[in-house]
Amino acid sequence: MLEAIRDKTDQAERRAEFHDEAERRHAAIVESGKTIAWSEMRRYLQDRRVGKAVARPAPRKLAR
Length: 64
Known about the structure:
- By secondary structure, the protein is mainly alpha-helical.
- The chain has one domain (2-61).
- The chain is 67% helix and 6% strand.
- It is built from two helices and two strands; from the N terminus they run αβαβ.
- The longest helix has 31 residues, at 2-32.
- 0% of the residues are buried.
- It comes from Quisquiliibacterium transsilvanicum.
- Residues 1-20 are annotated as: Disordered.
- This is CopG family transcriptional regulator.
């Protein structure tokens, strides 16, 4: 029973940390007005995973 309570508490803490990090990242995007399109980031990560030497995608202004 105590282990289940500990597991639930750990899970809630991890979830809170995840949400806090998401809020910080979103605030940074809003402040800078720049982001990287998921299609570009995905291609970059896939290329890196297979060992290709690729340049990081450049952040761009958000379209509004």
